[in-house]
Every structure is written in C-alpha cells, then in structure tokens.
Amino acid sequence: MVRRGIALAAIGALALTGCGEGAKGSGGTAKVGLITKTETNPFFVKMREGAQAQAGKDGLKLMTAAGKFDGDNEGQVTAIENMVAAGVKGILITPSDTKAIIPAIKRARDKGVLVIALDTPTEPQDGTDALFATDNFKAGELIGQYAKAKTAGTTPKIAMLDLAPGVTVGILRHNGFLAGFGAATVDAKATSLATAPQVVCTADTGGDQAKGQTAMENCLQKAPGLTIVYTINEPAALGAYSALKAKGLEKKVLIVSVDGGCTGVKGVKDGQIAATSQQYPLKMAQLGVDAVAKFAKDGTKASGYTDTGVTLVTDKVVSGVDAKDTAFGLQNCWG
C-alpha cells in the first residue's frame, strides 16, 4: 500500500518512458500516464504489465514514471508535470505522499487531465477523480480477525511493523488490523494510527525486508514474550521471520501480513507467515487504463471508489474467518 524497495533512477528524480502505439484517433494516439511509487517493486512491475496490456487493447500509448524511492514526492510531481506537458488524457498514480501530491494533481485536473489514484488514496480522497484500490482497511481487518481466532485463549502481546508516518495505506491496514482483532474501536475514516493496550511495540519499516528484520530485533529487546506480529507487507514479514528464527522463536510467534505477492504467498505455504491478505494490482491498472480510454473517447469521467478485491490466504484456516488456500494464492499472485 507503500511499497518497498529502492527504485532505479533513470533521469534525475524519476524514470519516464513511453511504450506501445495504439490505434490512431482524429487527434492522434491518446496517451495515458502511469506513475508508481518505485520502479522495481514486483507489485508495481505487475501494475505496469496490466497497464501496458490494457493500453494495447484500448488503443492508447502508455507513459510510465517512478521516483527514486518510496516517498519521493518531488519525483512524482515532476512526472505529473512532464506527462501533462506531453498531452496525456489521463494519469494513474500510486501517491507516495498522499497529502503533498495534491497541489500537483489539482494543477493537472485544472488542465483537463483525468487523474485516478491506484492502490493508495490521496488525502483527501477526492483529490483525484477516482480511486481503484484494495479496501486496505478490510485487508487489515481480515488478518486481525484471523490472528484473534488463531490465538484464542492466550494473552496477546502484539508488535506492529508499520509503513511510515502519515501514509494513508499504512494507517488503513494498521487500524483495520486492530479493529479486526477487537483491540480498538476505529473505522476507515480515521486519519491517524490507533493504539491498543495489547500492542507492546510499534516500528516503521518502509515496507522493506531489512528494515523489517531490524524492527523485529528491536521489538524483541523491548518487549520479550511477543505472541503476534502484524506487518504492513510481506517483505517486512519475512524480515521479521528472520529475526524471530535467529532467536529460535519462529514457531512461537504468529506473523500476519498484507499483499499477496508470489514470494509472500510462498512464505505462507512454507509456514513463515501464517496468513496474508491478497490484493490485485493487475486489476487496478486494467480498470484505470480502461477508464482513461473511455474519457479520451467521449469525455466520460470515472468517479468515486472502486474496490478491486482482497482475499485472506492461509493453509491454516480458522473457524469464522473466510479464506483461500495457498494454491489459490499462487494462482493469483504477482511478482
């Protein structure tokens, strides 16, 4: 929902490319832009694949861009400006800084460009024309419900390995987990991280595996006897698992996560992660590009929020929590 890893930098703060010629209209080939948080993360690689395939079907030319790192708002602002200058009809963006990007998006919209957020809503959400994304609160809620049921009868001591301050997707997953676990009364409208007495350690990981490992090591020192680890994504989860294994605790602590990438689902299958909420970046991109194609054709504007789905994936099902097994997860994973 912030995704993880360092991106390859191509030109200054961003990489900007064009690919895929479509059918010519009266004004030439319409262009659609895709701006992701990073260039190399498998989630965004799959998103670009989906966008390129749909652009080909819809007769659009796809332009892509990404910042140097997750959180590179300046790079995304530059990408928006370059794409508007290039004459795109619409821009699809996974915003790194959900508040700071708003002025640049407004300038694009004021010039008649359709702007759609993918995966991560801006703050406020109506800063874009539309949003195609996972219900990240529900994704957190599912793993919270699962963790609650799986550890019933024990006294929970929870570590929460979060994303980064102020990022909407991180807030939604964190709060959804606590709501699903029954540890906090909070809903998807909250704009800050909820707290709960069961939570004995919190740390930011940036969704990065190495940072997830370090965060877990620090939490183990701060709060021995942990029973549950919530992680913002699967790289952070695998980092946490490495730290736990080094202490011989990998079978004593339950790890839950969000994303549904192939590496993460394999982690569930191998028992490193107990359960994960799987999301679908390919679908987000396909719907987004198709919406821009309709706008380019007749001015029809997409609006509001479209839920692109989320599924709990685990091989250790618990009563009362709907889930699919890792065979399903591997058939629908990405990366």
UniProtKB/TrEMBL annotation:
Family note: Belongs to the bacterial solute-binding protein 2 family.
Q: Does the keyword Signal apply?
A: yes
Give the lineage. Answer: Bacteria, Bacillati, Actinomycetota, Actinomycetes, Streptosporangiales
Q: Which SUPFAM superfamilies match?
A: Periplasmic binding protein-like I
- Show the PANTHER family listed in the entry: D-ALLOSE-BINDING PERIPLASMIC PROTEIN-RELATED
Keywords in alphabetical order: Signal
Q: What is this protein called?
A: Sugar ABC transporter substrate-binding protein
GO molecular function annotations of the record: carbohydrate binding
Species annotation: Actinomadura barringtoniae
What coarse category fits the chief subcellular location reported for this protein?
Answer: other
